[in-house]
Amino acid sequence: EESKKGSKDSEGIKDSVTEAYENRIRAFSSPEKVFQLFATTQKDGEAHMHPKDFLRSIHPTRHTGQPSRRQGAAAKRLFQLVDLNGDGLISYHEYIFFMTMLSLPPSRFKVAFEMFDLDSNGSLDQKEFASMIEVLKSKSAMGASSHSNAVSTSNKVKSAKSKEAQVHKGKYPVLFGQRGLKTLTYSRFAGFLDQLQKDLVTLEFESFGPVEDSITAGAFATSLVSHVYPNQYKSYMKRIKLIDESTRVTYEQFLAFEQVLANLDDISVAINTFSAANGGFGKEHLKHAAKVVAGVKLDAGMVDVIFDVFDSDKSGTLENDEFLAVMQVRRFHGASRRRTVDVGAFMGCCQGCFVDNLTLS
User: Fold this and answer.
1) pTM value surpassing 0.85
2) Which of 119, 149, 156, 332 could form a disulfide with 162 if both were Cys (CB 3.0 to 4.6 A apart)?
3) Burial tier of 350 (Cβ tally within 10 Å: 0-12, 13-18, 19+)
4) Mind listing the pLDDT tens digit for each residue in 123-142?
């Protein structure tokens, strides 16, 4: 029995160290480094991702039980959207395309779409779309910090595959057909973006192992801070451990909160304007803002959880700047975070990890 207990403790420590390392890579590293860490297969010497690798590169793996029917359908649909050439794997080029889709608000795509529609026919051909994506990629956090078109441990393979990817990077069969002759309207593209977001949100919800289609208050709170820097995450988890677990969050409520985040820019204006005039932003104010701006009726229990996390002094008012900054990163699943390392945050993270390792040993 003691041997089994020791083995389980050892495995738990190993998992904690691995998760901490993976979180540091997600937070601080270049897209190439993130891709290389999570890609578990090679094709002609070039690193590629399986569906599970791709999902782990965005969110930590939390629930390892049998996937639900909804989870399986969302994963399959998401992978089909990202696997642009339909070969059953995700290349680095496809990964960067997807992360660009995640890292920018729909309004940015809408303006760009209309600007690249030079003949004003309401649609883009593949060449126009490719030009648009290249510009948006260069302006996105992930794209701007990416300096290659392929990932490989062999410089020779990397060079050859980068040239090959350069030739094919303007092709998007999932949107324009295998021959690239179809056109794309903005409404169809907006639907593509919406489906990406909904599937990702569904998979995150399912990762917490819902029971009777709901997750615990602590799981919802964890999802709120899942993309902060690792040292910040530790601090938030101390608060989260104190949360009353009697509240549960359903799938529909989880989706509704994502709709609020989709309107975060306007929510931010509402919070800051009201706070400046009234000296604070309470629970009823947040529910009112969600209703007015996003048309969403936030559940009172969910709002309690939000304040448990972002009202550390228990004053009954949100810590506005902190809440909005964390939600901005959460909204884009961490893809909008700049990849130029914040030295202070990095050193703080390293110090925290050093202390953790001392404690674990």
Assistant:
1) no
2) 149
3) middle
4) 999 999 999 998 998 888 87
